[in-house]
Amino acid sequence: MNIMFYHPTFNAQQWQAGIQQRLPGSTLRIWQPGDDRPADYALVWLPPYEMLAGRHQLKGVFALGAGVDAILQQERQHPGTLPSGVPLLRLEDTGMAQQMQEYALSYVLRYFRRFDEYQRQQQQGVWQPLEPHQLQDFTIGILGAGVLGKAVAQKLVDFGFNVRCWSRSAKQIDGVSSFAGEAQRPAFLDGVKLLINLLPNTPETQGILNGEMFAHLAPQAYLINLARGAHLVENDLLTALELGQIKAATLDVFVQEPLPPAHAFWRHPAVTITPHIAAITLPEQAMDRVAQNILAIEAGDTPTGIVDIRRGY
After folding, report:
1. Three-state DSSP class for 257?
2. Known catalytic residues?
3. pLDDT tens column, 187-233
4. Whole-number Cα distances in Å, 32 to 6, 53, 59, 171, 301
5. pTM for this prediction
6. Rounded to 5 degrees, what are φ and ψ at 120?
7. Distance (Å, whole) CA 31 – CA 169
């Protein structure tokens, strides 16, 4: 079994040893320009066009991340980047769900307990207890009910929060109110005090976090964006913060990364920034999942994480 590997930042030697350990008899080679030797599978992130173009004999292309928007964007810009007829697979969970739970819960509690405001009071030398939020008035809405959205929703329900989810198609999550489709989105947004975005990045969802959506939330709502920067219309958020529609925002992803030094978000007192670290790919767990899926394909079974190219996830 021949496997090609390309990732601009991962430790290629770690993946080479790890995959060969999990799949005895396999050979994983680090792809280099000019390599046109046969391969059965490809493990990639932002692969050069010439790596995969024309390789219709591949049994699967594995995107080494939960999101596949980057490689699908490459395909739109350079048709043929993904060989037609070859399944594209994404990583599902591989330790990302727990990381996303940790991140979301920490910032939800920060806003719920008003710790962000107490931090500003400390900087100003102010000793002033604030009226606490109440659970019944602190409805949390989650955009996206996939693996990560479901995991975050369940963790917040465990803490007693009133949680609702919105997704493209109907999903059932214990203890969570579910909304689906464009027709139900206004009802989903109505009364939401804290909005978490975990949607996949597709042409249909780009710019979904905009002024119109913010106006449907509860007054002085909070925003946490953990999906992609392309979901957020940045100037609309700045306007919503100025108007008081949004009280504060935590952003882990941005249209341009790294965030430019002159960007207004850096200096805004109500915006918290983290450098796209909410959930990172954990190599050992990722290699376990890739190996399991390759074995499933070799056995004639259906692997997990197959991407619907048309939908974009």
Report:
1. coil
2. 228, 276
3. 999 999 999 999 999 999 999 999 999 999 999 999 999 999 999 99
4. 8, 14, 20, 43, 31
5. 0.91
6. -65, -40
7. 38
